[in-house]
Amino acid sequence: MNRYIVLLLLLWNFGFTQEVAIAKYSGGGDWYANPTSLPNLVKFCNQTINTTINPKVATVDIGSAEIVNYPFIHMTGHGNVVFSTNDVINLRNYLTSGGFLHIDDNYGMDEFIRKEIKKIFPDNPLVEIPSNHILFQKPFPFPNGLPKIHEHDNKKPQAFGIFIEDRIVLLYTYECDLGDGWEDPEVHNDPSTVRDKALKMGSNILYYIFNH
Description:
- Strands 2-1-3-4-7-6-5 form a 7-stranded mixed sheet, covered by helices on one side.
- The protein is globular.
- The N terminus is likely disordered.
- It has 212 residues and is an alpha/beta fold.
- The chain has one domain: Rossmann fold (3-Layer(aba) Sandwich), CATH 3.40.50.12140.
- A hairpin with a 2-residue loop joins strand 6 and strand 7.
- Helix 2 crosses helix 7.
- It contains 7 helices and 7 strands, in the order αβαββαβαβββααα.
- The longest helix is centred in the C-terminal third of the chain and has 20 residues.
């Protein structure tokens, strides 16, 4: 077991509270979009599925050694993304040692992020996650897979993953906009049923991470 894995295990199991963070990246994209999303998801999970996630959501640079403090990192935005060589190495070490990165296309990120993901795992392509995967089963059932939260280009919502030994380490949600559904109600004026679907799907993601 390398020292990176040992560090992750110590950091994530020493206390009673899990930590999550928003990813800060380069390239000009608005990594800071949806500021209320992750705090709202954390609150929902702590109230409904008995997680003990710290309600104070951090921001972490993907090139920083500090990413090992967080078993879950959420990344979103509308525009360009550029991973440096250091970012790529740091993310690869983090993800192969037990970390999890969720990338949610807030609309406009897709053409950029796919190229950057390929830098991290050039021999391990994104694979569409089928609707019968455990990610869509617990604790809330989504028999049709990823729900549609906001309409973009009249395309179906898709969940893609990078798998390592049958475990998802990187989740990319496309044509869905989960993060918008997690935002405060007045931000997008989504119906409560839509926000509920988004929060429940987000809960499934965190449940998967902390139980697999």
